[in-house]
């Protein structure tokens, strides 16, 4: 704390939480190190921070340091470290921590803890174990549980399991767009366009609408928000030119547009065009033309980032010598020198 102020736990925790949620995890770490008073919330915020920023080793180390100071883990801190294990593919460590909740810490797992384990197993492609785990739960599986399993099905292209999870989702919340969108996306990823059309027609007939995706970033105190194919921005021509420039440059360095992320039955050339108009790419191009060299580009997206945008951002971080920080609905991605903090496990 260079300003010489002594922060109490409440103020320190608020500052720590702000930095972690806004993408400045190293600043959060500095605040954490400078706090003289650390309660269970302080430790939990820091563990969460490392977890959602993709540094599971620091999350686990922080969890152990907390225990060594004599502070007993609570449900929030355990959930935080489980999330870190899930995002990094540390299945065995995550399962050990979950198993120790009741045995060593006398913590009764909540639905969120069970969902974290389903996510942990699903991301690793261990679907049979995930189903057995769900069947063994003492609580009735809810929308979050089946949603966690479904998300993993798309990543691993497991259509049959996706259908099972989707049916459960629609039974629980028949008017929620997520179940329909998830299943439609899985079918699209497998090229089953008749099934895609059937799901989308069902949505239309039942008046179910999905939330549009958007990406935003702040420049000079002003928030700029983009949607796919956006043409409303005052600098749209500059943005499109910059986007063409970075895509061309990335292709010269080996980037190949991942057209399987286009969820419409159109030809390959049209798919490349559709990929180029994704909201996070527009925000990236805007960031590059609106900020000076060396300035970190911070983007927020309300949905999960698509694989093609993720790939392009790795190339652009190396080409532009910029750090790009993208926060999607699941986690933070830090792109630097052609590498993402998630290590492509997301």
Automatic annotation (TrEMBL):
The keyword Repeat applies. Keywords: Repeat. It comes from the Eukaryota. GO terms for molecular function: RNA binding; zinc ion binding. Residues 254-346 form the DYW domain. Belongs to the PPR family. PCMP-H subfamily. PPR repeats lie at residues 39-73. This is Putative pentatricopeptide repeat-containing protein-like. GO terms for biological process: RNA modification.
């Amino acid at each position: 704390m260079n300003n010489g102020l002594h922060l109490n736990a409440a103020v320190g925790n608020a500052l720590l939480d702000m930095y972690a949620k806004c993408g400045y995890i190293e600043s959060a770490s500095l605040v954490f190190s400078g706090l003289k008073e650390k309660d269970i919330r302080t430790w939990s915020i820091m563990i969460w921070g490392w977890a959602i920023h993709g540094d599971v080793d620091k999350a686990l180390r922080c969890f152990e340091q907390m225990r060594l100071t004599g502070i007993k883990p609570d449900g929030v801190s355990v959930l935080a470290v489980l999330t870190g294990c899930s995002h990094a593919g540390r299945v065995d460590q995550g399962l050990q921590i979950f198993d120790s909740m009741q045995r060593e810490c006398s913590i009764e797992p909540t639905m969120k803890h069970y969902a974290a384990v389903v996510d942990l197993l699903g991301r690793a492609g261990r679907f049979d174990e995930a189903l057995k785990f769900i069947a063994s739960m003492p609580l009735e599986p809810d929308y979050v549980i089946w949603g966690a399993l479904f998300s993993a099905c798309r990543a691993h292209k497991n259509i049959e399991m996706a259908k099972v999870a989707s049916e459960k989702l629609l039974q629980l919340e028949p008017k929620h767009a997520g179940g329909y969108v998830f299943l439609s996306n899985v079918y699209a990823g497998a090229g089953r366009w008749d099934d895609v059309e059937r799901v989308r027609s069902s949505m239309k007939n039942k008046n179910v609408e999905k939330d549009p995706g958007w990406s935003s970033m702040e420049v000079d105190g002003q928030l700029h928000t983009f949607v796919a194919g956006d043409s409303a921005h005052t600098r749209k021509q500059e943005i499109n030119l910059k986007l063409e420039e970075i895509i061309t440059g990335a292709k010269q360095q080996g980037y190949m547009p991942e057209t399987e992320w286009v969820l419409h039955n159109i030809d390959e050339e049209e798919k490349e065009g559709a990929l180029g108009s994704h909201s996070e790419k527009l925000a990236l191009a805007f960031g590059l033309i609106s900020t000076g060299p060396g300035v970190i580009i911070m983007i927020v997206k309300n949905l999960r980032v698509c694989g093609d945008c993720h790939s392009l951002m790795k190339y652009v971080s190396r080409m532009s010598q910029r750090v790009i920080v993208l926060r999607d609905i699941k986690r933070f991605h830090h792109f630097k020198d052609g590498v993402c903090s998630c290590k492509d496990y997301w």
